[in-house]
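Suppose you are handed a protein chain with no further information: no name, no annotation, nothing but its sequence. What can you learn? This example shows the usual starting point.
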Amino acid sequence: MRFQDWPSLRLVIPLIAGIIISDTIDDTHTVITVSAALLCSALVVVILSFIYNDRLAVLYGAGLSLCFACIGSMLYALHSRQVMVEWKPGPATHKGMLIEYPYERARSYRLDLVLEDSPYTDIKIYLYVPKDSLSAALVPGEHIVFNGTVNKPSNDGTPDFDYAAYLYRHGISGTLWVPADRWRRMASALNLPFRAKAARTRRIMYDKYKEWGLKGNVLAVVSAVSLGIKRELDQGLKQMYSTSGASHVLAVSGLHVGIMCAFLYFMMPAFLFKRRWIRDVIVMTVMWGYAVMIGLPLSITRSLIMFSMLALCKVLHRDSSGINTLSLAALVILMCNPAALFDLGFQLSFLAVLFILLLEPEFSALVKPRTAVGTYIRDLISVSIAAQIGTAPVIMYNFANFSTYFLVTNLVIVPLMFLTVCMSMTLWVVGWIEPLRWVTVKCLSGLVGIQNACLEKIVGLPHSRMDISIDNPLTVWIIYAVILLVFLWIKERRTHRLVQALACIAVQCIAVTIQSFVV
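A reasonable first move is to predict its three-dimensional structure. Written in structure tokens, the prediction is:
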């Protein structure tokens, strides 16, 4: 294993480092100024080392890494400057456009608005309004005029969670609550933004599911895995999937993209195309259109970038590297949205795939089944263990728990989810023919019912969840460092890797000791 074989990884690591450094500094003006100066210097080093390759070759990699670290810090600082708005004190009248359907809360509706009044054009806020028939009937693209005092995001009421940072990192610059007599709806925009059009399309498809006979938990699960609509999942259902270790199947991700691509390839046999690359282009176009329609969640964006690159390499008859393709996907996403690094879905998605690429071949090599069924079970277990190793530290840091029966869950859920996604796609093909639609809806309802019943049994097993908490982010970094170093030690059989792993453990022990004395 050589670091040089993954050029995209060599670029994305310094980019991530630059974003993290920028996040720790509040003065965005200083960050931008210093990063710009360092970027210019690094570019000079890169150019000179490229020209005088024989003499300065050693500086090329260092200069390129510094360039991407500076780019990462600048991009995140610019994002922070745009999002962290200084609101004028006192109430004022604002106008905004609704970009999503109202989100129902216990006593109010949350309206996701993009402001349209100067000097706050294109600034996103959360507007909370009382529950009534007027607020419930709002649709994306409608204009809202309201009067109130917009406040910066704060942590009031959430002492154990940095809610303000969460909102800033998701592009939300302010929040406010207004009574019913201080806001009114206006006509929809003549030219709807694409996000509003996509939201309306999703709602039309969701209503079509209801019209065709899906309801209750079946409707909630099918709409989550096919349309990315999770608002209909009740808290009990979410908790059941989370406790059993199956919450990943509710997010439209690589598993779902793979199933959908396989379904589309099956529907378009190769013999129908003189040039097979045409079929690849059609499938990728359909999948990207689908991704845009459901709002381009980070997990499916990552998957589609990887699938697109693999398809391109196949057409060009080039070898492809999974880790290199994964790193390229991360590079593209972070260059477009540097705050995505702090999104939990981004972290879990990339960590799961990274550890699957690293560890799954090693686990699979331990057992050589003689049958196709045995191979399938071996591969599923290997993937599940690798993904769990990759995501467990982050899950324990954010949720303070660990799903004990994740292997049993995946052995049951993955095949059922494969059938569920295929049946949901089939429903859109045959749903217009009543007898076929009735059969498909019955099959789909039965599949989801079996799936939920199995998860309920798994959750009911003794010690289905272990409460394990990681309080310090440094501990998370050290755990990952130890895992990777032990993996390299097993792979390379070099003693210094084991020494480095033990050194990381020693650093953690020292940090815990110091913290205990400080407390």
